């Protein structure tokens, strides 16, 4: 099979790495890709915003499947363009992608489908936001309605914090058009969980659960980011809980979208809070999580290309997702100044040495080649990933690899999967 992978981040590098292991793969192309993806795929300089160019490239290459990594081209309608060209696409249409591109739309779908989620008020004025904040008592979450690259969410401890966050969106335009409407949302308490499922328009197939770390600094301090690391599996999340979530979240949403005439084919990511009252949806994404994919994909003991093709073709019936018994930990190495003002252009070295360590993979998240040297080109630069027999071994390998990588001023959290390791130790 000839495949075109759309994207240029760590998630796409992990997808390329896993797709390249398929015996069915004859050619892998990527647009625009990155230097890490270039080890597995032929790169094409088509930008994510160029939907016509991307569809034309897929047609010219006569690919059998287009796999779309990021959310922005899906929200803009890339899957629709690919379908119009008569090609198959792993990734939902723009109509179905509204689950991520509009949090207000997602709340409406969940209401209609009876999916458990945080209560929320959609506001397009400061006055409306003020009233909702007061009604909920101040300890709320303020969310930009649209796509904000994982940064449009502010968890607030006081009404003043919430007011500032709402004004940042509605008045100051911190997130551009994405923040023209905000959700004032109930603040849920509990442990977070990411449960990703492959969907073929009717059926839902869960991947192994993961947990990411959104806050910038150790101990879940600092601002929200796109994610500073992830791990899989998640201790204490068993098959029964996964099935409960599929039955109350993923399947009802897929059924609701099918009933609306916008069937969902692709990866449906539910970001959940495990509350005392049961799982509650925090948000949906309509693609593989980043950095969750980097912790989930290395554990898959199955041909990923086969699964993605079956999802895109509406034929997931009978499919399974066996996984290895390993634990996997992925640590984000970010540029100095991330997330507020990341510094680009810093030289990166040590990746080859890191990848000589057992069980280690280094996925490029924000890199570029300039004058023959590898440099940082984004806020999250690398996903240093390691598998091991348990979390203690996976963490030891991942952080040993991080120590071998040099990027001036870089930052990373030192506690990714630490709680999972401690839980493992308690139950040993």
Description of the molecule:
The protein has 428 residues and is of the alpha+beta class. The protein has four domains: 2-93, Rossmann fold (3-Layer(aba) Sandwich); 119-186, Dna Ligase, domain 1 (2-Layer Sandwich), CATH 3.30.1490; 190-313, ATP-grasp fold, B domain (D-amino Acid Aminotransferase, Chain A, domain 1, 2-Layer Sandwich), CATH 3.30.470; 327-426, Phosphoribosylglycinamide synthetase, C-terminal domain (Glycinamide Ribonucleotide Synthetase, Chain A, domain 4). Helices cover 32% and strands 27% of the residues. The strands form seven sheets. A five-stranded parallel beta sheet has the order 3-2-1-4-5, with helices on both faces. Strands 12-15-18-23-20 form a five-stranded antiparallel beta sheet. It has a four-stranded antiparallel beta sheet with strand order 6-9-7-8, sandwiched between helices. It is globular and about 55 Å long.
How would you classify the helix and strand content by structural class? alpha+beta
The multimeric state of the shown protein is single chain
SS elements, strand count: 24
Can you tell me the CATH superfamily of the largest domain?
A: ATP-grasp fold, B domain
Helix content: 25-40%
Beta content comes to 25-35%
At CATH level 3, the topology of the largest domain is D-amino Acid Aminotransferase, Chain A, domain 1
Uncertain parts? none
Q: N- to C-terminal separation?
A: 45 Å
Mean pLDDT: 95
* Shape descriptor: globular
Q: How many domains would you count in the coordinates?
A: 4
Question: What is the C-level CATH assignment of the largest domain?
Answer: Alpha Beta
Biggest beta-sheet profile: 5 strands, parallel
**Gyration radius over CA:** 20 Å
Widest sheet, order of strands: 3-2-1-4-5
